[in-house]
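INTERNAL AUDIT FORM
Audit reference: QA-55
Scope: verify that the stored structure record matches its stored sequence.
Auditor: D.O.
Record contents follow.
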Amino acid sequence: MDVFELVKSRRSVRSYVDKEIPQEIVEKLNAEIIECNRLGDLNMQLVLNDRNAFGGMKANYGLLKGVTNYIVMVGKKSVDLSERLGYYGERVVLKAQELGLNTCWVGMSLIYNDTKGAYVVNDGESKKLIIAIGYGENQGHPRKTKSIEEVSVSYGDTPEWFKRGVECALYAPTAMNQQKFKFYLYGDKVKIKYGLAVYGKVDKGIVKYHFELGAGKDNFTWL
């Protein structure tokens, strides 16, 4: 699937049907999680068939329904942990989409019951948030986005790779669809600034991953 087809097709889904994820897909998803954990020095974990975690009032209040599978976002405590979880978590999200699954980034406050023994948080690690995953009742709904001009500044000529990167970033999920990011182009160097926002550091990692997908990592360096 083309990169833009993939990011356009992926939308947040909050309601899921009671359908087990086939073992073959579980293995492919876990392989992607293991690779992202290696690259990002993380401890993300896939939890399957947990009917307790999202069964409470807070899940219903957050409009989550039928969630029994999720990915716990865990890593060693550090100043850049949230950004790395966003970056590599979104890589897993898009892999899930490619495998025919639906997903939704969820703040930890929406979990009503923390199921004992479902996952591990080691000493020195922190659990930041989770990703609901499974087969959705629908494929989600399109959301409004800002324009390329609203979220980017180019000092000089604007190459096509930069435009593609920004366009791809506009399809990145951000908390409450805030899209508080802005890209700055200096020749072949790119800087991203992110305004104050709920889960802003996580969003920054997600957006950076999308930008790299659209722009091509070999075309630029981050400032």
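Auditor finding: record pair retrieved intact. DSSP finds six helices and eight strands in the chain.
Action required: none
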